[in-house]
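Holo prediction. Input below; ligand is fe (ii) ion.
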Amino acid sequence: MEQNAQQAQQEKLMEHDGQPSKHTSSRRSFMRKGLVVGGAGTIGAGLLAGGLSLPAFAEERSGGLTQGDVDILRFLAAVEIIESDLWQQYNELGGIQDSEVPGGSGSKAYTTKLQVLDGDMSQYIHDNTEDEFSHMRFLNAYLASKGAEQVNLDKFRTLPSSKATGAQQIRRLTNLMQLTVDTSWWTRYRSRTQNPDLGGTFAQAIPGLSKGQFPAIPRNNGDLAPDAHIQAIASTAGFHFGFIEQGGSSLYPTLAQGVTSLEVLRILLSIGPTETSHFQTWHDKAGNAPALTDPTNGLVFPDLNASGGEDTQTNLIMPEPTIFLSRKFPPVSIIRPTQIAGSGGAVATIKAFTDDGLFIGQLPEFFAVLNELAVRADEARRG
Ligand SMILES: [Fe+2]
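Structure of the complex:
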C-alpha cells in the first residue's frame, strides 16, 4: 500500500516535470565531465529521463526549500532506502522479526554466532533496522510535504535473497553476500595524529576483509557449518555494521554544512547523531569477534589486542582526540571526516558502498541515478 502510494505521488509529481532549465543543463554538463564511481562508468546525458529526475518546479524553491536543501534531502532519502534494504536482510536472519520489523523467520545458527558478539545483538539489529525505515519514511514524507519529489528505488530491487532458511524470497537493492569490508574506520577513530580531512590514511583492523569477497549473511544452509565458517560470517556482519553506520555518522554532519533552511538543518542534526549512536554500539560489539580463521576461505580475524597498541585495542570505542581543521589547534574528539564534499560526502559515500560490494549485480542505471543524486547533494551550499 505504502509503495503504491509513493508511486502514485511520484507519477503525479512527474506530470509537472517540464523542460530542464539552464541551471539543470549546467549541472548535467558538470556531471558529464567525468564522474566515475566504482563500476558505474561515466555519468552521461539522459540521466534525467528516468523516473527519479528532479522536477523543474523544484529548480528554484520547493515549498520554501532551496534547490540545495531538496538535493540534500533526496540523497539522504536514497541512502536511507539503501540502508533499510540491507538492514532488513540482516533482521530477517539475525534480528527479531515482529510487527515493528516484519519479514523473515530467523536463522538459529547465524543468530547464535551473532550473539557471541553480544547477547543482545538480535535486539540491536532489529532496532537499527526500524530506525533506518523510520528515517526513510520521514525524509520522503517531509519532501512530499514541501512539494518536492520523493525518492523511490523500487525498480532497482532486482538482486536475489539469501537462500538460507529464514530469509524472505524477495528481490533486493543490496547484496550482502560478496562484501569487501573496509575496516579502516577502526584505526581512524583511534588515531590521535591523523584525520582523513587532513590527508590521513589508516590501516585495516581486519586486513583479510578488505581483500576478496565474503558473505555477511549465510548464502544458503550450506553456510551454517562448520562452526568457524558461520562465526566468520557473523563476525563479518559485525564489522560491516560498524562500516555502514560510521558512514552515516560522517555523511549527516558533512551535508549539514550545505543546508540553508533551519528546519532542514534541524532534521539533519536530529537524524545524524542516531547514526552515530548505532556506530558506537557496533564499534563496541565488533571488538568481541573471536580470533579465528575461516577454514573454507582462509579469512582471518586476528586478536586485535595482541599487539598491545592503541590502534587496535578493542575497548577504545570512544573517539580518540585528533587533529581538526589545522594542526595548530589542540587535538579534539570529533566525528571524522566532515569536510564538505570530502571523503565523508555524498559521492564518497556511494563510492564506499560500491567498493564494499553492496551493489554487485546492480544495473548501470542504478549507479547513474545514485551518482546524480550524490553529485547534486555535494554541490549544495548554504543560500
Ligand atoms: Fe539512517
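Residues 1-60 have pLDDT under 50 and may be disordered. That is the main takeaway for now.
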